[in-house]
Amino acid sequence: MNTKDILKDLKELQKKQPDLIIRKIKVGLFKHAYIVVNQSVSSGDRVNDFILKYFSSKNIFGSNVIKNLRKRIEENIPSINYIPVDNVEKLYELIFSGFTIVIYDNSISAYETRGELDRGVNIPQSEPVIRGPKDSFTENYNANLGLVRKRIKSKNLVLKEITVGRETKSKVGILYMDNICEEELVESVKSSLEKINIDGIMDVNNFKSFIEQKNVTFFPTVLFTEKPDDACRFLLEGRVIVTMDNSPSVLIAPTFFMDFFQNSEDYYHKPFFATFMRIVRFFSFFLAILTPAFFVAIITYDQEILPVSLLINFAEQRNSVPFPVIIEAFLLMFTFELLYEGDARTPSNRGTSLSILGALVLGDAAVNAGLVSPVMVIVVSVSAISSLVFIYYDMQGSIRFWRYLMMILAALFGIVGFVMGLMLLLINLCSVKTFGKPYTLPMMPFIKGAQSNALFKTEISKMKKRPEYLTKNIIREE
Fold first, then answer.
1. pLDDT per residue as tens digits for the range 146-171
2. Same domain, 90 and 184
3. Which of 107, 245, 366, 411 could anchor a disulfide with 326, C-beta 3.0 to 4.6 Å?
4. Within a domain: 355
């Protein structure tokens, strides 16, 4: 590389980016070294203590030292991460990643002097924890790796790194257990990421559209978590996790339908209680989707299903409502969507006011005004509360889609439309593939050996095998 041309380009770039610092230091009588650093992403104290302090030392100006200055610089500057630079593209990537560049003669070296621009390890925000570890991933790539390695102290934990984004140059890490994970899965994830050729990726969630296989479904086939204990649990099952610089969550692949009914806290409770909660979540899924549609179907077409006393009660409640039952249901569901999004985007100190306004003032006023019936408020509330059992936003989104589709089919065809919608839901679930495996494993097709940690939960001491559909090494306990 021609360092003169590089210095010329750097000085031109400095006119556009004032935070780019170029320091010329005299070395001996006729030699100069150049220190290049971006002060926005670097630590001034580290640059001063590790780089400039070395060059200010008088003992480097001896004639014998000048001849071997490059070697002396590499050996004596106290930086844990030293990188020789061999191309211009790598040079700019290192500068804007917090490295200090030392240019001397025709050699260029980079020393890590990153600034602390990340928040510390905090409790999870989107995945509340009652029992279990309360640390979460942060935007610091190395800190995220440390949170994983703190839990899995094994030489079999493998890390493969790639760079994604022509402009962002984001560092991406693929972690897996070499003695557990299938090689085909690792290569599939790695090749999908290497094919990305866009200008920038801001968060690991952006990888979803590149990694997910083509399926006609709204159900998520990859999972995102900000909890290191969850990530490590999935690693030990034979899955791959993908982490990225500046992203506070990791991606887990592959993900199956039953994973969304499990929670990390299930592993810190007695098996009976964990099993009970998984069954509750399972039925909540169908309640959230089917309840409004079933009510619309029986009120619109199939009133004979109801007992006469209950039918008369419903008719009296809806006597003053001016809208058809489907319009009434959509009106309430849309109101709930507004409240849900408003609560999610509202600062926590104002969220309580929004909840009181929506639940008490707006709901009570709508019933008293005769716009909606009390029974419809109950039906929509049961459906909405059931969907909130799921903490993963992607699953909540799929529930919303199927809820509205079922309501439309029930409004058009009654119970027949309701059954059609239910069959479409089951067919869609059974047709989805995630990395070549059925999405509904291990329930359909049924795998007896994997039922100990599917819908039902057994003691950890009895879970002596890993799921055979996930790993090449099913033995968990020798």
1. 999 999 998 899 999 999 988 888 88
2. no
3. 411
4. yes
